[in-house]
Amino acid sequence: MRPSTQKLAMKFSALAFSTLLLASQTLLGFVELDRGELLLETRFQAVHDSNIRGNNIKESDTIFSVDPTLRYERSSGRGSLGASAGFNIMRFNDFSEFDSENFHAEFNLGFPVARGSPLAGGVNFGYIEDTRVDQFVNDLVSSERTSFGLNGQYRVRQKISVRGDLSFSDNKTATGNFSDSQDKSARAGIIIHDVWQSVGVTVDYRIRRLKTSGGTVERNDKDKSIFIGLTGQLLPEHIFHKLEAYASFSMQKIDSSSTGGQNNRSAVGYDAQLSWEARPTTNINLSFSKDHQVTINDEIVENSNWSLGVQQQFSQLMTGSLNAVWRKLNYIGGLNRNDDRFGVTASLAYVLGRNWSAGLNVSYDDSNSNEDRFNYDRLQTGIYSTFRF
Q1: Domain-located, residue 307
Q2: Tens of pLDDT along 172-227?
Q3: Enclosing domain of residue 187
Q4: Separation in Å, CA 40 to CA 24, 252, 334, 385
Q5: How many CB atoms lie within 10 A of CB 181?
Q6: Which of 2, 64, 266, 325 could form a disulfide with 6 if both were Cys (CB 3.0 to 4.6 A apart)?
Q7: Using one digit for the tens of pLDDT, what is the confidence trace for 58-98?
C-alpha cells in the first residue's frame, strides 16, 4: 500500500497528464513514427450502477469516467509491436470516497523473425491500477498489478512443435486488510499436429508458485500440473465450417504451507473453447473452464465457468454482442460458502466517423449464495464515446 503523500502525488500527476492529453488532441493529430502509428484515444463513459459494491447492501450511483490513452502500433513481416499508456479517471456522483485515478500501461512485442520461420512467440509487460468489485469478497477494491510474460514455439518437424512460457505477476491491494500476492509459473510442452485429420494433441507440464502476504494468512503454494489437450477441427467440418476449438484436461498436485499449517491436495481442472464463424457477419463463442484460485482473503475457491457469446455485424458501421455467463464458486478449507451466479451482457457500437464511435452497454448479474451477504442482483447501464486522433 502506498503512503498517503505518494497517493496524493500520483493523483495530481494523473490529473495533470490527462489534462495535457485532452488539451493536445487538436494539436497532436495523427503521427507516423518509424512505420508505426502513434494515436491518442480518449474514451468518455457514464454508467448507472444499481449495486456499486456487488453485495446485498445495494448502494446505487452514477459513475463518470474518462480514459485518455496514447497508443503505438506497428506490424511488419518480421514482427509486431504495440504499446500504450494512459489514465482511467473515475468520479462517483454520490460516493465520492471511491473516486480514483488509475494509471495503466502495456507493452507487447512479437518476435521479429523472417516470414515462414519455424519460430514464433513474444514478450509482454503490463502495469494496471484498477478499482472494481472483487467477485470473491464482493466489495469495491483498489489494486495494482505488474505482470511479465515470455512465450515461444518452435516447429521441430512438420508435425511436431515444442513450446514454453514464463510468467510473473505481482498484485497489491490498496483497500482493506487484504493479501498481496506474487505468482510465478513456467510451462513446457509439445504439440503433435494433425494426429487425426486437422486435430492435434498437446501435452504440457507446469510448475507454479504462489505467495501471499499482508493478510490474516500468509500462503506459500507450490503447484505441479500436467495438461493434456486437443486442438483443431474437433466437430464435423461439413456442419461446423470455420470452427476453431481447444479442449484440455489438467491434473494438479498442490503443496501448501501457511500460517495455519501444511496442506497437500490434488485438483482436477478443464478448459474448453469453441469459436465458430456461423456466417461472415456472425461469430459464436462457447467456453467451459474449471480451476482453483486463491482470493485476496487467502481463501481457496473452486471456480467453474460456462459462457456463451454471439457477435453480430449488422452493417459496416454497427456491431453488437450478447454474452451469457454462469459461475459456480465452491469455497474449500473449512468455509461453508457456495455461490451460483448468472450474468448477461449486451452491447451495441456504432461508428459515427472516421475517428469517432459511440455505444451502449447493459449488464445484469444475479447471485444466489448460502450466505446472505452474497445474495444480490446488479444492473449496470452505460453509454460511451471514443475519439481517436
Answers
A1: no
A2: 998 778 899 999 999 999 999 988 878 899 999 999 999 988 877 788 889 999 99
A3: 4-256+336-341+350-388
A4: 9, 44, 50, 14
A5: 23
A6: 2
A7: 899 999 999 999 999 887 667 788 999 999 999 999 999 99
